[in-house]
Each structure stands twice: as C-alpha cells, then as structure tokens.
Write a structure and sequence with these properties.
With 154 residues, the protein is an all-alpha fold. The chain is built from 2 helices and no strands. Helix 1 runs antiparallel to helix 2.
C-alpha cells in the first residue's frame, strides 16, 4: 500500500490553484459585467445618434431660413440707407437753393434799416448809402457764418 504523502509544497500548490481559480472567477464576473455595461453604452450611443441627427437636420434648416431672412433685412437696410441718402441730397439741394436769396433779403433789410437810420441822423444821402451797403455786407457775412455753424452741428 502506498501512503499518500502531503507535503508543504503540495499545500502551497493547492492554495495557489484555489487562488488562481478565485481570481479567474472574479475576472470572469468583472468581464461579464463590463460587457453588459459596454452593450448598454453602445445602445445609448446608437439611440443618441438616432435622436441627434434629425435635430441637427432641423437646426440646419432653421439656420438656412434665418440666413434667408437676414438677406432680406440686408436688402431692406440698404434700401433705407439709399432713401436717407436721397432725402439728404434733396434737402441739401433745397437748402442751397433757398440760402442765397434768404441771405440777400436779410442783407437788404439790414441795409435799408441802417441806411434810413444813418440818413435821419446825418442827413447825408451818400453816407447813408455807404452805411447801408456796409450793414448789408455784415449781415450777409453773419448769416453765412450762422448757416455754416448750423451745418456743422447737424
């Protein structure tokens, strides 16, 4: 009869085998759980892709419509700028056409007033005419300067 001999090295091998078996089972369990998690992650990505692509298409369409409307607004603002430029040109033309006669009439009124006043005081017709011309010239220059300053502030 043979006796079974069980030594310390045999016990170490048995302990190592049990340890490796437990480690393998633990790793197998972890890999199975990891596989399930990766499967759910893959399904989530697929679902997100299925949901996001239509949204992206709708956003692209909305952006196209917004760009079309912005192009229309651009045309409207260009038209408004052209209208304002036309109005400005018309106002400047009318202003220029009226400015000269108004200046002359204002100078004439100032000259007549100063001429009569000078004639009443000095009883000299030539002196009154000279005073009237000087007053008319001064009034025309003052009015021209006032119009230039008004044009700068506008």
């Amino acid at each position: 009869m043979t006796t079974l001999a069980f030594s310390a090295s045999d016990a170490a091998y048995v302990a190592l085998a049990v340890f490796l078996l437990a480690t393998g089972l633990t790793l197998a369990y972890a890999f199975i759980r990891l596989g399930g998690t990766l499967g759910r992650l893959s399904a989530l990505i697929r679902g997100t892709q299925d949901e996001i692509l239509p949204v992206i298409n709708k956003v692209g369409g909305s952006l196209d419509r917004v760009n079309t409307q912005l192009d229309k607004v651009d045309v409207m603002t260009d038209s408004a700028v052209d209208a304002v430029d036309s109005a400005d040109t018309a106002v400047r033309a009318v202003s220029f056409a009226i400015q000269r006669p108004v200046t002359k009439v204002s100078g004439l009124a100032a000259g007549v007033t100063h001429g009569f006043a000078d004639f009443r005081v000095h009883r000299d017709f030539r002196g009154a005419v000279a005073a009237a011309k000087a007053a008319a010239r001064r009034r025309e220059e003052e009015l021209a300067e006032e119009l230039r300053e008004a044009g700068r502030t506008v």
